[in-house]
């Protein structure tokens, strides 16, 4: 009896094991088996290529940009391709046409812009291609000279990094570790009437006035300060991710340079970046932007290590003109460093310029 029972149990277990094997193999299910190469699913790959434009192609501001997409497999094209320029949707392409134009309104501002094509298949983004292009200014910058109207004394020890004028007083930021300062200066005499010394580890840079507060940045420490204008009492600290070079105020925004060709626009209360601008003339990017001033709707920027001031359109990034101040200070003055420092008297329409360790500050008139 025991042997018969064991044989019966073994038969049941074998039958169950055989059924389980068929189920795991998948052959007992009604799933068709692929038997030819044509029936195998297509291997994943790029759906498209971008044939126009080339990487780093250059265009003038306001130009149309032709875009040409080619499906990699004509027999299996994407369902659609969406084109984006500088983050904004331009067009949706389909099998009827794989071409489009980026309209002139999209290329109004200068800079390095992204062109992105996103190919969709079966409702999903399958392939993404990104190209970059350069938008140059479409105008040739005017060339300006200058005429000296007045000369004022300037502290020879002031390594000038920032400068602005307000209600008869000059305010100046000086640099160099161990000797960086914020100063109130008497225009006529060059006398420092008030001075705040920065921590010796900090290298002072640009300053600007926003309402009744002075903003000052430092070079590489990524920290700046907000002061009460009337007392130089520190109200707040500000932080940023780039180097700090120049500052200027435009309406309700503060614009900062970092030595590149990029200008950053900050919301003053929280000092967060709300936008940025890339500066180009009609041939190249214009970098080494340093001390800034806002004058009659333009951003004026010292170009470091040169005698040039760039006049920049704050809406588009185009360089409208260059002011050449060569010869302003006697070249035989061996103790002087580079030109740096622009201040504007809005009420009197006066322009003041100076430089690092210059013994003089100049009131100038721009000539054509």
Walkthrough of the structure:
There is one protein chain. The chain has one helix at 2-25; strands at 48-52, 57-60, 65-71, 80-85, 88-93, 99-102, 111-121, 124-136, 142-153, 160-166, 169-174, 181-186, 192-197, 204-210, 213-218, 223-228, 234-239, 247-250, 253-257, 262-267, 272-278, 289-295, 298-303, 308-312, 319-324, 339-345, 350-355, 360-367. It is mainly β and 368 residues long. It has an 8-stranded mixed beta sheet, with no helix packed on it. It is built from 1 helix and 28 strands. The longest helix is centred in the first third of the chain and has 24 residues, at 2-25. The radius of gyration is 33 Å and the shape is elongated. The protein has 2 domains: 48-136, Sandwich (Immunoglobulin-like); 142-367, 7 Propeller (Methylamine Dehydrogenase, Chain H).
Which key phrases capture this entry?
single chain; 368 residues; Immunoglobulin-like; Methylamine Dehydrogenase, Chain H; 1 helix; 7% helix; disordered N terminus
Topology (elements, then pairings):
Blueprint: H1 2-25, E1 48-52, E2 57-60, E3 65-71, E4 80-85, E5 88-93, E6 99-102, E7 111-121, E8 124-136, E9 142-153, E10 160-166, E11 169-174, E12 181-186, E13 192-197, E14 204-210, E15 213-218, E16 223-228, E17 234-239, E18 247-250, E19 253-257, E20 262-267, E21 272-278, E22 289-295, E23 298-303, E24 308-312, E25 319-324, E26 339-345, E27 350-355, E28 360-367
Through-space gap between termini: 121 Å
Compute the number of strand runs.
28
CATH superfamily of the largest domain: YVTN repeat-like/Quinoprotein amine dehydrogenase
User: Strands of the biggest beta sheet: in what spatial order?
Assistant: 22-23-24-25-9-28-27-26
Mean pLDDT: 90
Find the structural class using helix and strand composition.
Answer: mainly beta
Total of DSSP H or I helical runs spanning 4+ residues: 1
Q: Give the fraction of residues assigned to helices.
A: under 10%
Question: Based on CA inertia axes, which overall geometry fits?
Answer: elongated
Q: What's the story with the biggest beta sheet?
A: 8 strands, mixed
Please state the CA-atom Rg, rounded to the nearest Å.
33 Å
Tell me the count of domains. Answer: 2
- Taken as a percent bin, the fraction of beta residues is over 45%
Q: So what's the CATH class of the largest domain?
A: Mainly Beta
Please tell me the CATH architecture of the largest domain by its name.
7 Propeller
What name does CATH use for the topology of the largest domain? Methylamine Dehydrogenase, Chain H
H/E element order: HEEEEEEEEEEEEEEEEEEEEEEEEEEEE
Low-confidence stretches: 1-10, 13-44
